[in-house]
Amino acid sequence: MKYSISRISAELGIDRVSCPDYEVSLLLTDSRSLIYPSESLFFALRTSNNDGHRYIEELYGKGVRNFVVERVPDSLKDAADVNFLVVDDVKSALQTIACRHRDRFDVPVIGITGSRGKTTIKEWLYQLLQSDFRIVRSPRSFNSQIGVPLSVWEMNDDIDLGIFEAGISMPGEMQSLQRMIKPTIGILTNVGGEHAEGFESMLEKCREKAGLFVDCDRLIYCDDDPLVKKVMDEEFGDKERCAWSFKDSGCRLYVKHVEKGDGSTVIDYVYDNRSNSVTIPFTADSDIENAIHCIAVMSLLGVSDEVIAERMSRLTPVGTRLNVMEGVNNCMLICDAYTSDYHSLNPALAFMGRRMTADRTSTVILSDVMHEDMNSDALYRSIAELLQNRHIDRVIGIGPEISRHASCFGGDAKFYRSTDEFLSETTTSDFDHELVLIKGAGDFRFDRIVDILEARQHETVLEVNLDAVVHNFNNFRAQVRPATGIVAMVKASGYGAGSYELAKTLQSQGAAYLAVAVLDEGVDLRKAGITMPIMVLNPRVVNYKSLFNYRLEPEIYSFDILNEIICEGRRYSITDYPVHIKLDTGMHRLGFLESDMTELVRVLKSQNVIKPRSVFSHLAAADCPELDDYTRGQFEYFARCCEQLQGAFDYHILRHILNSTGITRFPEYQYDMVRLGICLYGIPTLTDGSQGDLKPVSSMHTAIISIKEWEAGTTIGYSCKGVLHRKSRIATIPIGYADGLDRHLGNGRMSVWINGHRCPTVGNICMDICMIDVTDASCAVGDQVEIFGNNISVMEIADVLGTIPYEVLTSVSSRVKRVYYRE
Ligand SMILES: *Cc1c(COP(=O)(O)O)cnc(C)c1O
């Protein structure tokens, strides 16, 4: 839904600045999530270790024009095309806007709180009710002070039911969540977690949680927990309540009998004096409780008993969300800061096991573990055993309960009574080359641990924008006929961007084929789970066994290779193996010539090991208009050869000849497929704009690590090459030619982008470091530096070096961390 800035200013009670009255539809709290700059309203939130104000200039550079801030950055004070809504507290402004938005809708809203099960119940209710309602629900586990406003913002005129979670960790937090969610139906899952931080007692904690329900007219909770019952009776005696119980047949929903079987559980219950029985495909106690909450909701909403039974039987598990991210000091983090129960621990350890590599040891950071049916001694003993069986090298337990059971774990395990205690005694240098599983219940706020251990942007990284890949792919899909397939070229590790993440994205976007350069790239993609067809362009295959095993389809470009693959295929009893016939129509590099065709057909027809899947060729000069006659000659030559080959077979052999430039300049030769390379990565090859709006996929960033001021005449760096002609501020950045920053870019031959300024290099580029003249930029240590990206184009760097963008992209060294982002 769109809001004008004047309306938002009014809602925030601030005078509108005399700037254009833009319309916005997206709330942005993380600069990395930017997709639609002009529609985004950015909230410069301050957290314990970051400040959104730092990203304003960068976002402005990317086209964002609307900001909610606590102070306006100096560099944009005079900008006329931007709105700064200045408030005292950005977070509460965000919440106010969410409240106003919520107030516009008069639909039932289910609010879920409690210590465990919130996300599962929310997702299950969605599964169960989506055929009756148009539902909006919290994305993932967006249940915090920041997550809830973003969730509520998803409400729009098309929906007729909202389902939102509310999670708190400190006294006083529920009130603001209640105002934003304003549920009409409340669910309290349970209240656990012993003495959680900040709360005086369990009763206090329970009361705080129940604060979500002040405006509800109907409530659902388990009557068997005396604490919950007490709070509900005292505070909400006047509301319609659907209490459920395993024990009390007087409850509105009485669970009469639960029978666990092999992989499923039968639940017999009585609701409003009607008996019913459902079978759910789960057996864990927590899942049974979650299911009963769902039964209560559906009964309350008037869903018939038969339908309830039918839908409950088809529930599917809600995957425990494990985020994987790069950590400090070459660590890799696997994080779940929401759940810590015995049943989700083993799957998380298995997930971790699949990501173990030889260069990392394993570490588990675990909070107190929720337990249903085990006494805590037995529980922690079996957890210790689990960790030992999984060969976890280092165990860190956080919480009073797990600390009390320290003796179950080996002598090397460390324990802390609270997350605060852990954080105060730990620095990032305590972690090095480790795969770290961080798993804790929401109350423990392990997201703060994740914040500390997550790799910070002070390193040199190649940021890869997967949304831009999708955008560029669709841009080209619109340029080719619907029936034409797109072969996505991910050779050279995705033109330097890293092939796996790209392949995964392109697979889901419906690319027809992936093309890699060498066998190993293809094998890696298969091992990582890429299932779509892959062609291997490499001139030499040495390991046919791998080729066949991983169903990688080779390019056949000579009689030698042809005979070799037939011979190897026979050894493995292969038949009809798909291959791609390469024709040399003018590159004069590799491929069959027209004069080879008769013999080629003869050999192909004389065997059944391989079967041509496609025939293709490559243009030598698609981007040189002065050589178009040559290119047209290639097309004619290609057509003749294709005809001869196709004539010998009674099934259709796919044909393809166009690369990126060819697609735009010679659309009449699309044939069955086109091969999209450099333009997929957002680099145009034509300067006339005919390739449409391409977005750069890769951007290389680093950060300033030092700034010094020098008098005129000082020399900077090796061989005293950089002579200063004025008093200057010189910044040092941690990137050098070993990272792929070509040494010919030194001594002012290129500029980097810092806070909206182009700043030239000074002196020679060193192996790991270079120096930048920042006299004209306002900047500080830690500020981001763009080497190339949205402001400094790869083309510009290629021009300085007298090369092409392909070489610049593929020269970024492998030691530069690739960071992928989306959404
Ligand atoms: C690399 C390559 C392409 C893609 O070329 P771009 O100019 O990057 O689009 C197409 N076909 C073959 C055979 C290639 O090797």
UniProtKB/TrEMBL annotation:
Belongs to the alanine racemase family. GO terms for biological process: D-alanine biosynthetic process. Keywords: Isomerase, Ligase, Pyridoxal phosphate. One of its GO terms (cellular component) is cytosol. Its cofactor is pyridoxal 5'-phosphate. Substrate binds at R589, M767. This is Alanine racemase. Catalyzes the interconversion of L-alanine and D-alanine. May also act on other amino acids. Residues 697-821 form the Alanine racemase C-terminal domain. HAMAP family: Ala_racemase. It catalyses: L-alanine = D-alanine.
